[in-house]
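Fig. S4 source data, part A: sequence.
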Amino acid sequence: MVVDDEALLRSGISAILDAASDIEVVAACTGSQALEHAGAHQPDVVLLDVRMPDVDGLTVLDRLQELPRPPHIAMLTTFDADEYLSQALQRGAAGFLLKDTEPRDLIAAVRALATGGGCLSAPLVRRLTHAGPAAAHVDACAVSPQLTALSSREREVLAHLAQGLSNHEIGGLLHLSPATVKDHVSALLAKLGVGNRVQAAVLATRASLTAPDTAS
């Protein structure tokens, strides 16, 4: 389901996603219509605009999270309108996407969300690192001790995750199956004490964790 106050943007995103054989857009609506459509269609994934004139995205996020079967939700934003992102992260958003995301990346993000993963535009991770301790649900001084709890492989996975890569992409770089990467992600989330991969990416970026060179 695509939720945005701009009809043109809703149509454009819907057309991109419907072109993928394994994705069906079941509804495209404004914020005030979101709860009704979510109840009727029970979407697996919702792409939700942060700023809408009829009802703000955070309010819609809260309402959708209260459903018996809440969808996986990614927030849509422009690069210069992200002051609400840390709040959305705390309220359970599973991802953040810029509205100018490339079509192929948008499709990949929806696929990741549908399987319980997360998605993020790398520039937003860098912005979130300056949003204060609440953005990662952890005090900045606790970053280093938490990272030391990770295995070397989990640190590699985390570093690539912080670049906005999907499990499939990380697996390709590290010569691992997507299922194995998913297991590593689950383990590192538990060790870091964060709720989703976006929070983990913020923490990794704060710690200046970098991915090793895999070109060789």
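Fig. S4 source data, part B ends here. Residues 132-142 have pLDDT under 50 and may be disordered.
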